[in-house]
Write a structure and sequence with these properties.
The structure holds two protein chains of two kinds.
Chain A: H1 19-35, H2 57-60, H3 66-69, H4 76-81, H5 84-87, H6 135-140, H7 161-165, H8 171-179, H9 183-189, E1 197-200, E2 203-206, H10 229-236, E3 239-240, H11 256-261, E4 265-266, H12 289-292, H13 297-300, H14 330-335, H15 362-365, H16 368-371, H17 378-384, H18 387-391, E5 399-408, E6 414-419, E7 421-422, E8 431-432, E9 438-443, E10 449-464, E11 469-470, H19 473-480, E12 481-482, E13 485-486, H20 488-494, H21 512-524, E14 531-540, E15 569-572, E16 582-583, E17 589-590, E18 593-597, E19 603-607, H22 623-653, E20 660-665, H23 669-693, H24 703-731, H25 734-737, H26 744-761, H27 777-803, H28 808-813, H29 816-841, H30 850-857, E21 859-864, H31 866-874
Parallel strand pairs in A: 3-4, 5-10, 14-16
Antiparallel strand pairs in A: 1-2, 5-6, 7-8, 9-10, 9-17, 10-11, 10-14, 12-13, 15-19, 18-19, 20-21
Chain B: H1 7-26, H2 61-71, H3 75-80, H4 83-86, H5 120-123, H6 137-140, H7 149-152, H8 172-177, H9 184-191, H10 218-222, H11 227-230, E1 233-234, E2 237-238, H12 267-270, H13 278-282, E3 292-297, E4 312-313, E5 317-322, E6 328-332, E7 351-352, E8 366-380, E9 385-386, H14 397-400, H15 403-414, E10 422-432, H16 446-449, H17 458-461, H18 467-470
Parallel strand pairs in B: 3-8, 7-10
Antiparallel strand pairs in B: 1-2, 3-5, 4-5, 6-8, 8-9, 8-10
Classes of the chains: A alpha+beta, B alpha+beta.
């Protein structure tokens, strides 16, 4: 039965109305299809494959030379000499120990010469006796992740164009060829999956059918393309762009970046993965939002002279240019494409420092201001925190945490543990829990210092000799292993439960005695002064970005006591040999914090950002302020309680003295409204301030809402205070608040004496209250202080804190938030103390509620002193 | 002067006002940012218990209807004005045709059992009336012929058979006592079983929707929607439209009836809305739980090779069922073309029964997911048009297995001449994928379309290439 194909491309409507359109569609479709047939790049011409002599390989049968073949059109010598991927540190090799890491055995900043405890094998510095790796063996091990060229050129491994520019390179065959030492054929082996060449028993045969009569490759076999994510992923990490679920099991080797950071390069939803991942169903975000949005590796890590991306000179420095249209012609670029790729400032890669930060940053593409308008203190946040800190909230694939080469497992490799996973079976049964990256301050090239996410990998290893060298894997195996198992002496040393088997937990030099015993074994193998060294390498985490919905955006994540920003990070479950690791020098991470061994023996990095002057609202409470303020409030509370108790007690013991009481209109309407408005705003301010100060204790409140209420109330308070000041100045009532210098001390003393003793004896108030003179001397001085000192200070500090996001430099000159915020808190405590005393003292009137009532109704009942009343009354 | 008593109240009032008015003004209101999708979901009215209103046993369906009409005198008249009764559209001006045409189950053919004319005995078992036996039905039918029970009887109390009459043995009294607003079963008994069985026709409507999980249908599974919550009804006229039986989108149900136009938080997604129908991303697959019929080949009917309802039936031919099917995508502006009886076959390729209208240049058209059903059915090789054969009943193909006879009998009923020679030809029919809206976590992502392996065929849709790189259809217009 001849039914139509299911792909809609072939189904061309014949409807009358659509006939014309259909024709159009057909024609476009056909054009399109010829463009996207088997060949990835429809423009790339076919070409002959040449060997190193420039002869067609079909004739010579020799391995292909990429330099010759691609060099027919491209300046391959230029390309190979402008590529840090090829160079790998080769041209920058220096005397051992003279590199950024300070390791005495490192000879470069790249893969070729910079040792890494994860791969462990050492390209021994020239002149070392009994080298671990030579240039040749380096290629068979660490160099498997190298593109060829550079240090490999001498061994016949040219820079491997195919690896990155074919849609289906055979990396497996290439690495197999390298491992077998079949260097000259390694690049040819990359073509095995393409059908251009076949291999039988180590013999490579060029497939004559893949070439035309002239010896040019047939178009059907041409799959040259821009490097896609899969090309990069061959060496850099797990790239998954298939529809089927991504499955990563256990703490396994999943590609370099994935193993070291947990980064997975996939557009797939995490919930759609096949991983045994905790709470997976809820993780409906993609692994990486940029991959999801079809941003490819090369879109950001572009060739530095690619005219599509390069802005051109002058744009950065000239005020009059936003865009420089002068750029390389596409042909010029294709002839000499610089193979230095835009790169960031990752802590772990010290190679090619001259190209650091050539990458576009988040801000280059994203309008961070517009998208963070919801965020209070947005510019402060953006100045203090890298985008990744909030937008890479968690990693959902395990990453290495600890590499312990002080012991070896039965396969002669280190005991390696990952973070973000529970269980050590190395199978799907291990539960991936994911982890929150460590946050360290990153020192950027532009001088800014911001928090950025890292994975901290700690490594312990034996070093021997002088200058020191890592003890070779071979000798480690010799010290630990015998036959198929561990050496009997090692078992005797480490087998804690004496069951004759070393469990994974027992395989650890967790005491100095064990370390010493192993050191002795190593010495016995001829090693001089074997000792344990340890280091921490921070690995920058820049990928696996999440969109806004999944980013950290809850204020209380950071602005609380247990702030995410300073969360402890476990570095190791145990400390081999008791040797504390040190952060490897030469990277951009400031090691703001200290290392602690907790009660379980685990090594923990405790971040302390305040050492670096980072002040986190809600986290960095200046302890003594709260103590002092609390004491002040408690003191006042205790004072008024004792005082009030005494008053009540003495009042019962004596008859009430007879004083004449008179009602007078004490407070005008405006004054009363002013007072209660002030009361209400101050109470709300105090409460909301408390919530803002200790948000973690008031989880039910919406932090942003509380801040808004606080700000509105503050504005009201300031307006109310300003109007009152105006009123009092204009009306002259201000005098009531001004302490009179004359007799002030005597009068104050008299008032104080009254509060201390007279009040208990039922004596009358020393000063009569009238509308004109309603404040006693102590009140005057108190209010004078509050209104002229505390209130303005509180208002000014408050406005400055609010204004930090508007005029940061103003607040900056006054100490910035680290000073203003605690100061504001201290004054708040004073206000609270004042309110308590103030409310209490209102009860000292004729009856306890007289004062409060008078402030509501305006009419006060005041004592009339006999000597003076007559005149008043007569008037 | 002293006794201005209310003044203190003014003090308190003014103070409170001064504090709370600014707060009320400045504090953000949370519920004003988006349209509340629940606002348009009807509140279900309490049901009147009919148990004691219906007491006498009913002798037949007509008697039940008479009883209904006693209290609901307008119900039948309203119902008879709707397509659920007429099975035919209003006259419609179809481009390229001289006269307005009506289409519907009543008079046109489809890709499944082909057509009902002459086959009323079986095909009208889903008609909401009683006793449709021949072409004279609508001339003689009265209000008593309306079948109230099929839409209102309680779950499990009612079923219909030949000539749309209640099945033998149905307790009509129990059914009448159970009436209420239509349930999923009332609608589903026909709409989930169109084409002669569960999941045959639509692909996005099948019995899995009786009790779907949220991952099959977020509205019905997670939010417990009934059909009529979206297909809201006025005077028995039920909202909703499908180009399987209609031509246009009048009275259509839209996602935006309840959901805001720009409801995605992500601007990039909102930028799609002028070009991509909601269903395209939110119904990534159909036939999720029950496989649906994708191919029906009548040509292979008539063989005694063993019946299996999902692969082969002697009376119907061979089938292909598929589950978890990825829809096909076409421009669609709400209108469909229609193959009418007597139309010539397509000159090339399969004949489309109802090709969705719209193109990349039609601003009203959006990319919409469809189930495309393929069939091979009988046609007149001389006259070059499709035949509506008689299949059911006396002389029909299902009893005689004689296409010649079936074609002749069909011709007598439809009036469409039959030349005497027949063959089989490919036809396709488009079924909009619009139910089984799945949770956001299952919606399509960028890469589902915008990647080399993406599911949209840009060239077929008229794009020069992926619009993520080439720009949208609106980019180049000015």
């Amino acid at each position: 039965m001849n039914l139509i194909a299911k792909t809609s491309s072939r189904r061309i409507p014949i409807g009358l109305i659509l006939a014309g359109l259909a024709l159009l569609i057909v024609s476009i479709g056909l054009t399109f299809q010829t463009g996207t047939a088997a060949a990835q790049s429809p423009l790339h011409p076919t070409f002959p494959f040449l060997d190193q002599e420039g002869e067609n390989v079909l004739a010579s049968g020799r391995p292909v030379s990429t330099m010759q073949t691609c060099g027919q059109c491209h300046d391959t010598a230029f390309i190979a000499s402008h590529s840090f991927h090829a160079d790998a540190g080769y041209t920058g090799m220096t005397t051992p120990g003279d590199t950024s890491t300070g390791r005495p055995w490192d000879t470069s900043e790249g893969l070729y010469g910079k040792w890494n405890p994860i791969t462990y094998r050492l390209l021994s510095p020239a002149g070392d006796e009994d080298p671990d790796l030579t240039a040749r063996t380096w290629l068979q091990t660490i160099g498997l992740r190298h593109t060829g060229g550079g240090p490999a050129e001498e061994l016949g491994v040219e820079m491997n164009c195919f690896l990155c520019h074919l849609s289906n390179p055979d990396n497996e065959a290439r690495t197999a060829a390298l491992q077998q030492g079949d260097y000259v054929w390694a690049n040819t082996a990359t073509l095995l999956s393409s059908g251009i060449v076949t291999e039988q028993a180590g013999e490579y045969l060029w497939n004559q059918d893949a070439f035309d009569e002239a010896g040019d490759l047939l178009p059907a076999f041409l799959s040259i393309q821009d490097p896609d994510n899969q090309n990069c992923g061959q060496c850099h990490g797990t790239v998954h762009d298939e529809p089927q679920p991504l499955v990563l099991t256990g703490c396994e080797q999943t590609g370099w970046e994935t193993t070291t950071t947990g980064m997975v390069f996939s557009a797939q939803r995490i919930s759609d993965s096949g991983m045994n991942l905790d709470n997976k169903a809820a993780l409906t975000r993609s692994w990486d939002v940029h991959m999801e949005r079809l941003v490819e590796c090369t879109d950001c890590h572009f060739s530095l002279n690619n005219p599509v991306y390069v802005q051109g000179s002058g744009v950065d420095s000239l005020d009059n240019l936003e865009f420089d249209p002068r750029r390389l012609e596409i042909g010029e670029y294709l002839y000499r494409p610089v193979h230095e790729f835009a790169r960031g400032q990752s802590a772990q890669s010290s190679l090619a420092p001259e190209f650091r930060d050539s990458l576009r940053r988040c801000e280059s593409c994203h309008n961070t201001e517009a998208t963070h308008d919801w965020l209070p203190y947005a510019s402060q946040h953006l100045d203090a925190i890298h985008c990744e800190t909030c937008h890479i909230p968690a990693m959902y694939s395990p990453a290495i945490q600890q590499v312990d080469w002080t012991v070896v497992e039965l396969d002669a490799f280190a005991r390696t543990t990952c973070r973000g996973i529970e269980g050590e079976t190395g199978t799907i049964a291990d539960m991936v829990t994911g982890f929150s990256p460590a946050l360290l301050l990153r020192e950027n090239l532009d001088g800014s210092i911001k928090l950025a996410p890292y994975n901290l990998i700690s490594a312990w290893y034996w070093v021997a000799g002088d200058p020191g060298r890592p003890v070779s894997q071979e000798l480690l195996a010799e010290a630990f292993l015998q036959g198929d198992g561990y050496h009997a002496d090692v078992i005797a040393l480490l087998d804690g439960n004496n069951d004759g088997v070393l469990s994974s937990e027992e395989l650890a030099l967790d005491t100095e005695e064990k370390a010493a015993a192993i050191a002795a074994r190593l010495s016995a193998l001829g090693l001089v002064n074997p000792r344990i060294q340890a280091e921490i390498q921070p690995y920058s985490i820049n990928h696996n970005v999440a969109g806004s919905e999944w980013a950290l955006r809850d204020c209380t994540t950071c602005h609380t006591e247990d702030s995410r920003l300073t969360a402890d990070v476990q570095l190791a479950a145990y400390v081999p040999g008791g040797v504390l690791p040190e952060f490897l020098p030469g990277n951009n991470a400031l090691t703001n914090g200290e290392l602690l061994v907790d009660e379980t023996g685990a090594l923990v990095f405790q971040s302390d950002l305040s050492e670096e002057g980072v002040y986190i609202f809600g986290h960095n409470n200046v302890g003594w302020i709260d103590w002092l303020g609390g004491l002040m409030v408690l003191g006042v509370l205790a004072g008024v309680t004792v005082h009030g108790g005494l008053r009540a007690w003495t009042a019962r013991r004596r008859s009430k003295h007879e004083t004449r009481i008179e009602k007078i209109y004490m407070y005008s309407f405006y004054e009363r409204v002013w007072h209660w408005l002030q009361t209400l705003t101050i109470l709300i301010l105090a409460f909301t301030g408390l919530v803002i100060h200790k948000p973690e204790s008031f989880g039910i409140f919406n932090f942003n809402g509380v801040v808004l209420v606080h700000n509105i109330m503050a504005a009201l308070l300031v307006a109310n205070a300003a109007l009152a000041l105006f009123h009092n100045l204009v009306s002259g009532d201000i005098k009531r608040f001004l302490p009179e210098p004359r007799g002030f001390f005597n009068q104050s003393f008299e008032q104080a004496r009254y509060y201390i003793s007279g009040i208990f004896k039922g004596e009358p108030h020393p000063f009569e209250r009238t509308r004109q003179s309603r404040l006693n001397p102590l009140q005057k001085v108190t209010y004078f202080g509050i209104l002229n000192v505390l209130l303005p200070l509180q208002v000014i500090t408050g406005i400055l804190m609010w204004g930090v996001q508007r005029w940061p430099q103003v607040a900056g000159t006054l100490g910035g938030l680290p000073f203003l915020a605690p100061f504001h808190t201290l004054i708040s405590w004073s206000f609270v103390a004042f309110i308590i005393a103030h409310v209490y003292l209102t009860t000292t009137g004729h009856t306890p509620i007289t004062g409060i009532k008078s402030m509501i109704v305006g009419w006060d009942e005041v004592e009339v002193h006999p000597s003076e009343t007559e005149t008043t009354e007569e008037n | 002067m002293e006794n201005k008593k209310p003044l203190w109240i003014a003090v308190v009032g003014l103070t409170l006002a001064l504090v709370f008015i600014p707060l009320a003004i400045f504090l953000p209101r949370e519920n004003e940012q988006t349209i509340d999708p629940w606002a348009n979901v009807p509140e279900r009215s309490p049901q009147t218990d009919h148990t004691y209103l219906m007491s006498e046993p009913f002798e037949d369906g007509y008697a039940v209807t008479r009883a209904c009409l006693e209290c609901h005198p307008n119900a039948a008249k309203e119902m008879m004005a709707t397509v659920h009764w007429t099975w035919e559209s209003k006259p419609y001006d179809l481009p390229g045709r001289d006269e307005p045409v009506t289409v519907g189950k009543k008079n046109q053919i489809n890709n499944f059992c082909i057509g009902i004319q002459g086959n009323w005995q079986k095909c009208v078992s889903c008609h909401a009336g009683y006793g449709w036996e021949d072409e004279t039905f609508f001339e003689t039918a009265t209000e008593e012929n309306v079948d109230c029970l099929v839409c209102h009887a309680g779950v499990g109390t009612y079923a219909k058979g030949d000539y749309a009459l209640p099945l033998e043995g149905i307790d009509l009294l129990a059914a009448a006592q159970s009436v209420g607003t239509p349930t999923r079963q009332n609608c589903g008994s026909c709409h989930f079983n169109g084409g002669g069985g569960n999941a045959v026709k639509h692909g996005d409507l099948d019995e899995s929707l009786y009790w779907p999980s949220a991952s099959i249908d977020v509205h019905m599974g997670e939010h417990n929607f009934q059909c009529i919550d979206c297909h809201q009804t006025t005077d028995h006229n039920i909202k909703g439209r499908s180009i399987s039986v209609s031509l246009d989108d009048e009275n259509q149900v839209y996602c935006t009836d309840c959901h805001g136009d720009d409801l995605h938080e992500d601007q990039r997604l909102n930028a799609h809305l002028d070009t991509v129908a909601c269903q395209t991303c939110h119904i990534p697959y159909y036939g999720l739980e029950d496989a649906t019929k994708m191919v029906w080949n009548w040509e292979e009917a008539g063989q005694d090779i063993g019946d299996d309802p999902h692969t082969y039936l002697k009376i119907k031919g061979s089938f292909v069922y598929s589950g978890d099917v990825q829809p096909q995508y076409f421009w669609y502006n709400g209108v469909a073309d229609r193959y009418l009886l007597g139309d010539p076959l397509a000159e090339q390729g399969p004949t489309a029964i109802n090709y969705p209208q719209g193109s990349i240049t039609d601003p009203a058209a959006k990319i919409m997911p469809f189930k495309v059903h393929e069939a091979r059915q009988i046609y007149d090789t001389i006259n070059n048009y499709l035949i509506q054969p008689k299949t059911v009943g006396e002389g029909g193909y299902w009893t005689e297995f004689d296409w010649q006879l079936a074609a002749e009998l069909g011709s007598e009923i439809t009036g469409l001449p039959f030349s005497g020679t027949y063959g089989f030809t490919d036809t396709i029919m488009f079924w909009p994928t619009t139910h089984m809206v799945q949770p956001i976590s299952q919606a399509l992502q960028c890469t589902d379309c915008h990647s080399p392996e993406g599911r949209l065929d840009w060239a077929a849709l008229g794009y020069p290439g992926d619009p993520i790189e080439w720009g949208s259809r609106f980019d180049h217009q000015d």
